[in-house]
Specification:
Shape: globular
Distance between the termini: 46 Å
Order of helices and strands: EEEHEHHEHEHEEEH
Strand order of the largest sheet: 1-2-5-4-3-6-7-9-8
Structural class: alpha/beta
Amino acid sequence: MADTGASGPYPLAEPGLWVERVGSRAFPANTPALFLDRDGTINVDTGYPDDPTKMVLRDGIVPVIAAANRGNIPVVIVSNQSGIARGYFGWKEFAAVNGRVLELLADDNAFVDMVLACAYHEAGSGPLAIADHPMRKPNPGMLLEAQQRLGLDLKRSLIVGDKPADMQAGQRAGLPRGWLVDGVGSKQPGFGVLPLRNLDELDGLVGAIEALGSRLS
């Protein structure tokens, strides 16, 4: 069962919100960030992942994160975790899986600076049974929380995800662009969605991150 208290061994800002600062890299105020969904974007999605031994990184994600690291751009994971609300696993299992994902990235010299995860869902029970919680994507709450804690400039930040909800969260947070894994491009008011399906599109994303970093130096 899910851990429901905001105290204890895990960095829970509230019963259904994990907020973890990873590492000690410092960033100037108003720095743009690279936001990433986790399951299906960083690691292969196994469906409600609860086993760290099954974690495998998606092809091409390491160069994306490494480009942000080189440009001193904060890398922030924003992940919906309804499996916790549904009782499929708890924060303990989330911590083990997430730790393994970060370990796999670090093995390839790619690093994350903050992890946020939202466990609220209408199918949950107790304090996690909240429909359309502001922290759950497509709502922008996790991005806004990261902005407050890291002093980010969302108007220059980018997001990568594998679901329309990721793109909608980016748009609602005021980001200008997002990349949709295995998706199609589209143009929304004030927000562009670019597909991420092949090597050329991956190179385009890495180039956009590098260009963003060059403007910070």
